[in-house]
Write a structure and sequence with these properties.
Layout: H1 7-10, E1 14-19, E2 22-27, H2 32-38, E3 62-65, E4 72-73, E5 84-86, H3 90-105, H4 132-140, H5 147-150, E6 166-168, H6 178-186, E7 192-195, E8 202-205, H7 221-225, E9 231-233, E10 244-249, E11 258-264, E12 267-273, H8 285-289, E13 304-306, E14 331-333, H9 336-354, E15 359-362, H10 369-383, E16 388-389, H11 397-406, E17 424-428, H12 432-435, H13 437-448, E18 452-456, E19 469-471, H14 478-491, H15 497-503, E20 504-505, H16 507-513, H17 519-526, H18 530-542, E21 546-550, H19 552-555, H20 560-573, E22 583-586, H21 593-598, E23 605-606, E24 610-611, H22 615-625, H23 637-644, E25 656-660, H24 664-667, H25 671-680, E26 683-688, E27 700-703, E28 712-715, E29 720-724, H26 737-747, H27 757-771, H28 773-776, H29 781-787, E30 789-791, E31 817-818
Parallel strand pairs: 1-5, 15-16, 15-25, 17-18, 17-21, 18-19, 20-31, 21-22, 25-26, 26-27
Antiparallel strand pairs: 1-2, 3-4, 3-5, 6-9, 7-8, 10-11, 11-12, 13-14, 13-27, 23-24, 28-29, 29-30
Length: about 850
């Protein structure tokens, strides 16, 4: 079933042809333009863009083919055996120049999209590169605009600046149609269209609405696609010629899009999507336009210490306006030396007088792997306990529990992009167009190619427009619905018994358990007709590949672990795991929630999910770190809040905390309880880039760096370890998080020595790589500097990484997936006559967490 492809299947066939009088070769189905490019022959192109469907409408790429009467557009004409192509014959060159001249003649006097790369020398009386790609090709082909063409210029439309992030300059539009393809075919948002005919034809948004009033979701794909500046980021108009371009990773969701920051005067003026394996140049509104937080005047720039005699009032946070609040009434500025001495002195005193269990730390899923690794190492070796956690506890912890129990690994089995190989895509408890917009584009692309999307959600979200079937089940009935699907697979003989017998355990217990969950019995409970449940189960089992993607709508329940157990069982009994286009994918929320967990930022696991109670793992890390370690699991985020408010007699009462990049005073489910607990701490150190609600309750506030101001790695939802590079200098006296953690460690008595650029980030990574040798031993720092992104597991320098896992065995002790039956657990509170509504929370596309 999962046999590898042969070499003949992988290697494309080549075709011999002649290019400009020289022997050349092309891959089967390759266009003349791309084959010529590989042979060092650049043919002009304007409507063509790598990765997009070739349209052939601008005719700037025409070439002459021997024996043919008309010139051929090279972007959409494939090479055939024996073809004789002249890319720059007098006839072809004249046509190319004519097209470029006519387009230039209708451009505005002052351009929008300057370029300063090769070929952008002054041409046609314009400033260098004033009309983007059009100017570049005109300069290369030495095109000048004749005066008689200039006087024929049409009346130019006015700019549309109704959108907060993008400007529309249709006077620079050459109607190449790239923006239409970007919107309709790549992002599948269907906002941009082509209206009218002839010389009146133009690009429109929806029903010819202003862009700001349209249904545009501001992904900016059209902006990046536009070759001339007809569509532009507002921030970049007038500042096209940047000081530098820095490759990095988007700091928002878990998709992990690669980006390039365009920097001028130590400020990001725009962001471009990079051709990374997770995004292939695509971005969403957050990744493309959500960078101004780094330049906010509200950034913390100096260490702060609470003024003597100023108490902590959690009730005051109810009225706090972070935009106008003045911290100087509560805190005073301090030097780094004073702030660090006070921070570590108080924490060290609590450790030494009250015991090691009296301290705890919250790390962040928004920072780098190196920061997460050092933070948990500090808590374990410096504080002396395993009381370290982060926001995964309130996100996918239940998914992780089920995955570790069932398949032996907490990571995804298949990458998001693998939906292109699926016949059915089962999306449950996730709103990907808002939470993971770029991942959603791959799902929408797959649906356009014929894959069937099944949306299972109490709400009909935007992805439902592309769904084959929508299971709008009643809230809190996930197990009932999923067990009904499993029942149908078994009842109708749709199981993959060969897979079950060879690869699974505990199947009989699962089969017996679901006997009471027929679709007919579950339909009144979950609200889905029995026939619809059966229909979906049949399609799932029979599909060439069926892939399950889920979000926190699955995990954030009292039965969250059971929900994930059901999804594991559904994939297993149908054999829809361990092959392309199938498997299990819990979509990670934050940019590094996968990496932070991998690095050990959880209370019951060392790095790479080695249990602290496992004597072998415990001994290995004691030897590796050269320190005595606690052999009992630490407290979780929720438990830590309770332990802060424990009675004085409790020997494990938590009295001091170090919180880096987390804001529990705003994000904790029981907000009042969390704020009261944080205000009750004897000493609280908060490390952040803004004066968060949690920081207002701190004794010491340490100003840290935003993502564009640091270098480090993150791991996305697809198991890709990716390198982000520093683009900006931090403001004021803010310092890199990695430096701060090392200073805190020194103050706690630890003798660390990480040397090298960016405060030893490469040295920290290499230590972490040794700690996680079972999965990333083949991903060196040098390799990341070359490749930017490598998928794990990757065990050697020439290992490309495994996009699909569990092909031969699962990561359990016996190599089999363990099926765990699940039953309905009713919620503690259910709708009734007095309280008939259910609140379902979720994200908005433009919003991010507590920001």
């Amino acid at each position: 079933m999962n046999a590898p492809a042969t070499l003949a299947q992988v290697m494309p066939q080549t075709i011999a042809f002649t290019l400009d009088g020289r022997a050349a070769s092309a891959f089967e189905g390759e266009s003349i333009l791309k084959a010529a490019e590989r042979h060092g022959v650049d043919i002009p192109r304007l409507c063509y863009k790598d990765g997009y469907r070739a349209d052939g409408n601008c005719r700037s790429c025409v070439v002459e083919i021997k024996g043919e009467r008309v010139l051929a557009p090279s972007c959409c004409r494939s090479v055939t055996a024996g073809m004789d192509v002249q890319a720059a014959s007098p006839r072809a060159l004249k046509s190319q120049q004519m097209v470029l001249e006519m387009l230039l003649s209708d451009m505005p006097d002052v351009g929008y999209k300057w370029t300063d790369g090769p070929g952008s020398k002054q041409a046609a009386g314009l400033q260098p590169g004033q009309h983007g790609e059009l100017s570049k090709w005109a300069a290369r082909l030495q095109v000048t605009v004749r005066p008689e063409l200039k006087v024929l210029r049409r009346e130019q439309p006015k700019s549309d600046i109704s959108h907060p992030a993008m400007a529309v300059n249709l006077d620079a539009c050459i109607q190449c149609n790239r923006c239409v393809r970007a919107c309709r075919e790549e992002q599948v948002n269907d906002v941009i269209g082509y209206a009218l005919r002839g010389s009146h034809s133009e690009i429109v948004f929806d029903l010819n609405d202003p862009l700001g009033d349209s249904s545009c979701v501001a992904c900016g794909e059209c902006v990046q696609a536009c070759p001339t500046g007809a569509l532009m980021p507002k921030t970049q108009i007038g500042s096209q010629q940047v000081d530098k371009k820095v490759d990095s990773v988007c700091p928002f969701c878990g998709v992990g899009c690669l980006v390039t920051y365009n920097v001028k005067d130590n400020a990001i003026v725009s962001v471009d999507g990079r051709d990374g394996p997770a995004n292939h140049s695509r971005l969403c509104v957050k990744g493309r336009f959500g960078f101004d937080y780094a330049h906010s005047p509200q950034r913390l720039t100096r260490p702060l210490i609470r003024k003597a005699g100023v108490g902590k009032d959690p009730a005051a946070l109810e009225k706090l306006n972070r935009n106008t609040a003045d911290w100087s009434d509560v805190f005073r500025e301090a030097s780094w030396g004073e702030a660090l001495a006070l921070s570590t002195g108080a924490l060290r005193n609590l450790r030494d007088t009250q015991g090691k269990k009296s301290l705890a730390g919250f790390g962040s899923a928004k920072g780098s792997n190196e920061e997460a690794y050092l933070f948990q190492k500090l808590v374990r070796t410096g504080f002396g306990s395993n009381n370290v956690d982060h926001c995964t506890r309130l996100c996918h912890a239940s998914s992780v529990a089920a995955l570790l129990e069932g398949v032996g690994s907490a990571a995804v089995s298949n990458q998001v992009h693998d939906v292109e190989n699926a016949g059915l895509i089962f999306i449950i408890g996730s709103n990907p167009t808002a939470n993971h917009p770029v991942a959603a584009t791959w799902m929408k692309n797959a649906a356009k190619r014929g894959a069937k999307i099944v949306l299972a959600d109490p709400r009909i979200t935007d992805i439902g427009r592309h769904a084959w079937r929508t299971l709008q089940f009643k809230a809190d009935t996930d197990v009932a619905m999923l067990n009904a699907l499993i029942y149908t697979v078994i009842d109708e003989g749709l199981t993959d018994m060969a897979f079950i017998e060879e690869r699974a355990s505990n199947y009989e217990a699962l089969r017996v358990n679901v006997q009471g969950y027929s679709p007919e019995a579950m339909a009144p409970i979950c609200g889905i007709p029995a026939q619809t449940l059966r229909e979906v189960a049949r399609e799932f089992a029979r599909a060439k590949g069926a892939m399950i993607l889920w979000g926190m709508g699955i995990s954030q329940h009292v039965h969250g672990t059971d929900n994930a157990r059901c999804l594991i069982a559904l994939s297993t009994v149908t054999g829809q795991i361990g092959k392309p286009g199938s498997g299990l994918h819990p979509l990670r929320g934050q940019n590094n929630v996968q990496g932070a967990s991998d690095a050990g930022l959880i209370p019951m696991m060392f790095p790479n999910y080695q249990r602290v109670t496992n004597p072998a793992a415990h001994g290995w890390f004691e030897n590796f770190w050269g320190a005595k370690l606690d052999d009992q699991p630490g407290y979780t985020v929720v438990e830590i809040m309770h332990k802060i408010l424990a009675p004085e007699s409790d020997p494990h009462k938590i009295r001091g905390m170090y919180i880096s990049g987390e804001n529990p005073a705003m994000s904790d489910p029981d907000l009042n309880h969390a704020r009261h607990a944080l205000a009750s701490l004897e000493h609280l150190v908060v490390q952040d880039i803004f004066m968060t609600e949690t920081a207002w309750l701190a004794d010491v506030v340490l100003p840290a760096t935003a993502w564009p101001e640091k270098t480090g790695t993150v791991t996305n939802t697809d198991r890709m370890v990716q390198l982000g590079r520093q683009a900006l200098a931090p403001p004021g006296d803010a310092r890199p998080d990695l430096w701060i953690v090392q200073q805190m460690a020194a103050g706690m008595g630890l003798d660390w020595d990480y040397t090298g650029e960016h405060h030893g980030v490469a040295a920290v990574y290499e230590e972490m790589r040794r700690a996680m040798h079972a999965v990333i031993s083949g991903i060196t720092w040098e390799r990341l500097e070359r490749e930017s992104s490598v998928t794990y597991p990757c065990l050697s320098a020439d290992d490309p990484g495994a996009p699909t896992v569990f092909i031969d065995r699962f990561d359990t002790a016996d190599g089999r997936v363990r099926l765990v039956p699940a039953d309905i657990i009713p919620a503690n509170e259910r709708p009734d006559a007095d309280f008939p509504f259910v609140l379902i929370t979720g994200r908005q596309l433009e919003h991010w967490h507590t920001g």
